[in-house]
């Protein structure tokens, strides 16, 4: 806590008062997958509910025990059952007569560069890749690192690993050689699957050189660890090729047999490791296993999108290198036999309407994206999406950050306005984490009236709460820490190679209660619905009041000139900390005028009160973000406190900090 500041009674002040609600469209309610009865059923017997959801999967050997909680927090789900994840995502749909159903409508970034893969195609491709992996000496328990653009082979590479019981770790294609090397080394990968490059922003970018560099780094500490590199030819660009370690996908995989018998693995067999950067220290390898993970990914994908697999076309814009790509591009949708779009490139290539054109062309009905994307479209204005037919949409989702109420309303009206026969498209605001594996909180589209900015309530079978410093649940209208109060099927099992860090990071804060500490602040509103308020590390203390950055940001975004805002607490001699805001204006606002800082500061005062009024407001062209679109407030705090800016390796665009720091130096 800041020296001199005193702790208020409230764990987190509750500032913003958003009262709008959006009821589910009648047509959706009439045929909804999930109803109130499902919540009631799950509340009566949570474990029986999950045992029933696990029947969405095909088990080679049935489980007899649902949850083994004999050694907390090392929980095990469905532990004596056996299954194969790839079989569940691919083969069983073919066996059920759905081989001709399109699994992937792949859309490359260059126009007209498209490819459809049916479930039967996927079965052949995954089988070939699995055979190729085995011929390269990869087997159950080995680790395969995947560093690829958004092409079908990325999904094939993941499923081929799962099929033979190998553990995959997908590293985002935008990460540096250094970040790749650290992950490859930490999980002990012996095979790296990559491509020559991919298309982004209208041009071919390279990936293979980063792999070559990463291998040199790994060799220096762990000689001989990486045995093979499998390279997909995507762009045809020249790449260095070392035949002693490199193999072309189109030779090794394409020549392999398309027949492969999947072996069943124990439900607790590791499926993948996904690295997530902590605020400090080395990235944590989050370990997920097979049966529980697949159960919750499949159930939540079906429930939250109200998926009708025979008619819906689904599209999640996440990158495969983010957990959202794992659960809601690969495992959830494919386990459910869905048809989905997979898009390689950026939203504005070759023009700003690209995403909306894809929705129109493929009649996308279920759409899942992040607040950062929604705000960037909001910045551009309504005219671009207005020129496309978006009436196929039924349910639209948000994930990654709290969605500001104004961005929510824009998303609902401008993107979702014509959906459901003009009744409008419900938004599912899904709260979850790499660690939780699948959605934990969201309003369900056929049951709950949505509140802009609130993830609202736990999905059936999940138990969350908001507690104070002592671990006692807060009352309605109060804020505190978001916790999960009982184990769930898709939970992380540990941090790869570091059980102690797993226990310390997630289970020591509320050890006595046995609660999982999510690291997010949250509040309960007067109805008891939950609003996530961002990471507790970002909470600031102003004159003894603990304020969430999210609420001040949302107040700023509710001004018609503002598209995006980031707020940080900077050290202040009078108040301990004071809010400093970085704001991106909408294009329609021009430069905002000479008194823009005062206008916005007065707006915050009138929306939420004088305590939250920013000490300084800076207009900036962009904000520092991670590759999954989260604002990196830590770096903005460095600028606000006039420090040297810290580690920027996980930024999507490192140059942005120079721009912001230069602007701050000249502003008053
Ligand atoms: C899936 C994903 C997890 C953190 C999480 C929280 C934030 C995600 C949110 C949300 C408010 C939502 N977050 N979804 N905050 N409302 N709907 O994002 O995983 O990259 O591990 O990030 O993201 O702060 O703790 P991950």
UniProtKB/TrEMBL annotation:
Residues 36-89 form the Acetyl-coenzyme A synthetase N-terminal domain. Its EC number is 6.2.1.1. Keywords: Acetylation, ATP-binding, Ligase, Nucleotide-binding. InterPro entries: Ac_CoA_lig (IPR011904), ACAS_N (IPR032387), AMP-bd_C (IPR025110), AMP-bd_C_sf (IPR045851), AMP-binding_CS (IPR020845), AMP-dep_synth/lig_dom (IPR000873), ANL_N_sf (IPR042099). Residues 96-488 form the AMP-dependent synthetase/ligase domain. Transmembrane segments: none annotated. Residues 551-630 form the AMP-binding enzyme C-terminal domain. SUPFAM superfamilies: Acetyl-CoA synthetase-like (SSF56801). NCBIfam families: Ac_CoA_lig_AcsA (TIGR02188), PRK00174.1 (NF001208). Belongs to the ATP-dependent AMP-binding enzyme family. This is Acetate--CoA ligase. The lineage of its organism: Bacteria, Bacillati, Actinomycetota, Actinomycetes, Propionibacteriales. The gene is acsA.
């Amino acid at each position: 806590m800041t020296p001199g500041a005193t702790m208020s009674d409230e764990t987190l002040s509750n500032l913003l008062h958003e009262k709008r609600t959006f009821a589910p469209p009648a047509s959706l309610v009439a045929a909804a997958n999930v109803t109130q009865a499902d919540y009631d059923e799950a509340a009566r017997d949570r474990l029986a509910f999950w045992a029933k959801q696990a029947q969405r999967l095909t088990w080679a050997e049935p489980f007899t025990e649902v949850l083994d909680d004999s050694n907390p927090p090392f929980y095990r789900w469905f532990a004596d059952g056996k299954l194969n994840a790839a079989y569940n995502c691919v083969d069983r749909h073919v066996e059920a007569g759905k081989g001709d159903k399109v699994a992937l409508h792949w859309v490359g970034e260059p126009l007209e560069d498209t490819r459809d893969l049916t479930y039967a195609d996927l079965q052949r491709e995954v089988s070939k890749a699995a055979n190729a992996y085995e011929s390269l000496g990869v087997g159950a328990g080995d680790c395969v690192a995947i560093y690829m653009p958004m092409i079908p082979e990325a999904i094939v590479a993941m499923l081929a690993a799962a099929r033979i019981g190998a553990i995959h770790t997908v590293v985002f294609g935008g990460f540096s050689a250094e970040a790749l090397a650290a992950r490859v080394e930490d999980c002990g990968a012996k095979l790296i699957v990559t491509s020559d490059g991919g298309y982004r922003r209208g041009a071919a970018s390279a990936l293979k050189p980063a792999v070559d560099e990463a291998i040199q780094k790994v060799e220096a500490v762990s000689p001989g660890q990486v045995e093979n590199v499998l390279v997909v030819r995507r762009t045809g660009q020249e790449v260095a090729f070392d035949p002693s370690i490199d193999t072309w996908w189109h030779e090794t995989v394409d020549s392999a047999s398309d027949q492969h018998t999947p072996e069943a693995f124990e439900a607790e067999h590791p499926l993948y490791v996904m690295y997530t950067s902590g605020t400090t220290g080395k990235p944590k390898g989050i370990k997920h296993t097979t049966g529980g993970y697949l159960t919750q990914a499949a159930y939540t994908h079906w429930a939250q999108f109200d998926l009708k697999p025979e008619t819906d076309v689904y599209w999640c814009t996440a990158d495969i290198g983010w957990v959202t790509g794992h659960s809601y591009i690969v495992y959830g949708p494919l386990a459910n036999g869905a048809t989905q779009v997979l898009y390689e490139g950026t939203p504005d290539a070759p023009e700003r309407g690209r995403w909306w054109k894809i929705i129109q062309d493929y009649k996308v009905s279920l759409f899942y994206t992040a607040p950062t994307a929604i705000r960037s479209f909001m910045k551009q204005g309504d005219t671009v999406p207005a020129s496309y037919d978006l009436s196929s949409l039924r349910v639209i989702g948000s994930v990654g950050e709290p969605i500001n109420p104004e961005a929510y309303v824009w998303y609902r009206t401008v993107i979702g306005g014509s959906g459901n026969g003009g009744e409008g498209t419900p938004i599912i605001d899904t709260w979850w984490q790499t660690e939780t594996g699948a959605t934990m909180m969201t309003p369900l589209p056929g049951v709950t009236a949505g509140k802009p900015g609130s993830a609202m309530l736990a999905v059936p079978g999940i138990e969350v709460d908001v507690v104070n410093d002592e671990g006692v649940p807060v009352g309605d209208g109060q804020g505190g820490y978001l916790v999960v109060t009982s184990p769930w099927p898709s939970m992380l099992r540990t941090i790869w190679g570091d059980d102690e860090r797993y226990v310390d990071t997630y289970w020591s804060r509320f050890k006595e209660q046995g609660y999982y500490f999510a690291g997010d602040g949250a509040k309960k509103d007067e109805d008891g619905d939950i609003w996530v308020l961002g990471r507790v590390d970002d909470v600031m203390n102003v004159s003894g009041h603990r304020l969430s950055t999210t609420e001040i940001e949302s107040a700023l975004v509710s001004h018609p000139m503002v598209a995006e805002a980031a707020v940080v607490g900077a050290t202040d001699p009078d108040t301990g900390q004071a809010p400093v805001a970085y704001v991106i204006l909408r294009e329609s606002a021009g430069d905002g005028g000479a008194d823009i800082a005062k206008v916005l500061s007065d707006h915050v005062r009138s929306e939420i009160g004088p305590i939250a009024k920013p000490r300084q407001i800076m207009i900036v062209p962009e904000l520092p973000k991670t590759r999954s679109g989260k604002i990196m407030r830590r770096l903005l705090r460095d600028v606000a406190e006039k420090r040297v800016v810290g580690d920027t390796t996980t930024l999507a665009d490192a140059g942005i900090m120079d721009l912001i720091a230069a602007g701050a130096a000249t502003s008053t």
